[in-house]
Amino acid sequence: MRSWRTLLARTTATLAAAITVASMGALAAPGAAHADASVVGGTRATLGEFPWMVRLSMGCGGALYSSTLVLTAAHCVSSTGTNTSITATLGVVDLNSTSKITRKSNYVYRAPGYTGSGKDWAFIRLASPVTGVATLPIAKTTAYDTGTFTIAGWGAATEGGAQQRYLLKATVPFVSDTTCNSSSMYNGEIIASNEICAGYTAGGTDTCQGDSGGPMFRRDSANAWVQVGIVSWGDGCARPNKPGVYTQVSYFAATIAAAATTLGG
Ligand code: ARG
């Protein structure tokens, strides 16, 4: 069951990516409807609120991990190797802003062993460093894998809806593996060790197609932002009893850090 539904979600994501590129110029003008909707059930982020948020040209999100590395989802990229085809856009909430920073990729590193289920993380290396933009540290232990999380992205604001011009944000509560894997939710489809669920039982707020690869984050004990998840999959968007499913970053933290070192930072 997991495989077909996951594949369906990912096919939609690929379509959304194509549509994004095609329609980005035709999105709503400032002040038009949708101003408060997205991520699903979100509101607009302000400039500088989440400086490390990255939009990727294949229609995914990402987080700036270092001056040259963007952490995203494995299902957003093809395979490990030289790749100069991806454009990363950051430093703005409005993707049409003339002050946006853009960088081309020069390499993609997809999680070793990724086959479409679990291990949903990847790095995109930028051809030149981004300076003066804060990075988002990853959670190195499970200490922050609970509580209330922030999600953000330029993905669809409704299930099946258009990609967004303005960065949207929302908060969602942690859902335990036991609850998320219960028969009323994902009925055993969650890989408890390396996926983390978040959302409301009643639905209404969630990441959606095009948010994939973007971070889910919260404040740590020093009040600094820390990344706990990577947008991975879900059954539709914001449906009741269908929380968003995120890569559990803490589980991969050591592997991610080692890969970053190998990639040159
Ligand atoms: N796989 C989707 C993407 O590629 C993200 C899905 C997230 N879905 C959810 N209901 N939280 O953009």
Automatic annotation (TrEMBL):
Superkingdom assignment: Bacteria
Keyword Protease annotated: yes
Coiled coil: none
Signal peptide: 1-28
GO BP terms in the entry: proteolysis
Record GO terms (molecular function): serine-type endopeptidase activity
A Pfam family reported for this protein in Swiss-Prot or TrEMBL: Trypsin
InterPro entries to which the protein is assigned, alphabetical: Peptidase_S1_PA (IPR009003), Peptidase_S1_PA_chymotrypsin (IPR043504), Peptidase_S1A (IPR001314), TAT_signal (IPR006311), Trypsin_dom (IPR001254), TRYPSIN_HIS (IPR018114), TRYPSIN_SER (IPR033116)
Keyword Secreted applies: no
Residue ranges occupied by any Peptidase S1 domain in the UniProt entry: 39-261
Keywords linked to the UniProt accession: Disulfide bond, Hydrolase, Protease, Serine protease, Signal
SMART domains in the record: Tryp_SPc
Protein name: Trypsin
Organism: Actinoplanes awajinensis subsp. mycoplanecinus
